[in-house]
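Q&A log
Question type: sequence-to-structure
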Amino acid sequence: MKTTKHFIWAMFIGLVSMMGFTSCLSDDNGNDNQNNQYRELTTLEKELAVTSAAGNYTGKFYFYNSESKADSVETNVTITASDSVLTTTIPKEALRAFIQRFNVPETTLNVFDQSPAPELKGVLHPYWNQYLEVLYTYIYTYVNNTVTVSFVVDETPHTIEYKFKDILYGLYGEKYLCYAEYSNKVFACNVLLESIKLDDNLFPINACMSLNVKKP
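Response status: OK
Response body:
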């Protein structure tokens, strides 16, 4: 197995607002409770937090391109009310940009270009305390941390494995979690990609990408 040089891309594009509420999700929220801003959700309110976010969305998937510049592509997201499952397809433009950073031969990129885009699924879990007048916040867990796609190019079978993480640490110790927010028909979340394995070539990625989408 070929293992390429390890990189860490500490990215959190388009979700600056999400970083702003990380402190609000800590255990120390006594002042918030005194001000009656944050409080524990009832069972009914937790159900509402999920059903409110349910629906079909369109918007942007944010990432860094092969030239280390912020970039985005159009994307679609579906969140189901029955089981709180978020479903989205990871744009291949974003994934290709990561592989290009490893200076792989053009033949490898050509194989990747003919692969199907991976579908990511995650289950939303509302935080126990919410700032109800502004937004709902969630942690989500991947249905499968590893997504595998198989395909054939010129009669040769190929396999790509995408591994996703629950927690990512950046270059300076910053910590990124699988959390999301919903407010006013707008949904935003991060996607933590650990690695891409194309056949026998392993590419350690450790990237934090992001979604920012809206319901009609």
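Response note: The chain has a mean pLDDT of 80.
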